[in-house]
Design brief:
The protein has three helices and five strands; from the N terminus they run αβββαββα. It is α+β, with helices and mostly antiparallel strands. Helix 2 packs across helix 3. The protein is globular, with a radius of gyration of 14 Å. It binds adenosine monophosphate.
Amino acid sequence: MASIFTQIINGEIPCYKIAEDDNFIAFLDINPNAKGHTLCVPKEEIDKIFDMGEHLYLQLMQFSRKVARALEKTVPCKRVGMAAVGLEVPHVHVHLIPLNSMADMDFSKKVEMTKDEFEALAQKVSEAINA
Ligand code: AMP
């Protein structure tokens, strides 16, 4: 069965999209550690990040960097942290997390956001990428 991220990529389930190109998509994490927590995902469904071919892996880093720089401009934070986990969704994704403290990297700590907040934030970050 297709991963939940493939279903998002195929438009079968919704997401708060930030950016998309031929090979990657970025959208807000639905259960964020901190406001602006974003996932950058290759469209090709590969389970583990270090099993990716070198070219696609480097392209994912390049795409993630672009999104991270827009996040840093948009979301009040000291810096943007990055993590690769994949214990819940076996489809490569880079977590980008606006950090104000080390606790923001704690995946057991979550913040509540309304649909309106998700939508407004996704739009703001998306505009910062394209600015
Ligand atoms: P992990 O696989 O451990 O790196 O975690 C998967 C991440 O995907 C978690 O932070 C989830 O909150 C996030 N996630 C799961 N389903 C969705 C979804 N439908 N939209 C956005 N984020 C999701």
